[in-house]
Amino acid sequence: MHKIVCFLLIVSLCCTCCHRPDKQGNDSELPQELQDLYAQIDKDAKNPELFNKLAVYFIQNQQFDSALSAISKAISLDSANETYYLTLSDVYFAQTNVDLSEETLEKVLAINPKNEEAMLKLAELHFLLKRYDLSQKFAEQSLKTNSYNPKAYFLLGWIFREKGDTSMAINNYLKATEQNSDYYDAYMELGILYHCRQNALAIDYYNNALNCKVNDFQALYNKAMFYQEAKDYDKALEIYKMILQNDVHNKVALHNMGWVYMAQGKYEEGFVFFSKAIEEDGTYIEAIYNRGLCSEMLNEKDKARQDFMYCLKLDDHYQLAIDGLNRLD
User: Fold this and answer.
1) What is residue 265's three-state secondary structure?
2) Residues 6 or more apart from 265 whose CB is under 8 A from it?
3) Residue 259 main-chain phi, psi, to 5 deg
4) Whole-model pTM?
5) What is the pLDDT of residues 53-77, one digit of tens each?
6) Residue among 232, 269, 264 nearest 254 (CA)
7) How far apart (Å, rounded) are the C-alpha atoms in residues 70 and 58?
8) Per-residue pLDDT, 20
């Protein structure tokens, strides 16, 4: 703890001589939002909240040194405000300085032991570091302060999923959606877990996710893959077509339509869609191989050989292409 206090003291001393951190050049050359912030600071140079807003702006624009300068100024003006330390922790985390981020969040809890945001940030931090027990501790601690926090339940879902306890993961994701009926990420996690179990409830949760984000690619793709894996090819094709209505250049949907046609024995249709996927990405090795496979099944061996050899130019260890060439010889 003493390291961060010393650091903040040094930074605050350095910042007191300049109330507009990292301001460079003419104001008119700056983005309008930044111009407005600097104008407000000019009028009220001792308002710490303005420097906090400035730091948040710099974080969002990945200017982390400027963010550190701005939030340090805010803290020098009001060293008891826990919100400013939360912003400081975000800066450190963005700079991949995990130790200082953790120390800063602990400082927030020293100021206010019931600060939910600090607890949840610590839970996320420990989760990313695979310290699942510590992550669980802080998530559960936040629920003691507020038992209706959907993010805490979502984090617990993550934690139990990583621990291999899918039943508890599902239970917590469901609690998250009970607290927030528009929790897209929780619905997606539920869909994936039931998808892995080959349980049709996955479709219901993907549909819930789509209610939160209409025409969302990932939810549509997962839904199509569920049907594809279940060999319900007509439904899978219907969804891939929906994806292409929203994004005609979506190479994954084009490839998967080709794969479904190929699985149905419709090799000419498969060839067409694999070719369309390759037009979008000339290095799409799976599409190139599968197009070659369609040619092989249509007994067009020269075309097949050409695609298999092209695969090996992209990856000389691509075993499927090696096996394909051996079949043709």
Assistant:
1) coil
2) none
3) -65, -45
4) 0.85
5) 999 999 999 999 999 999 999 999 9
6) 269
7) 9
8) 52
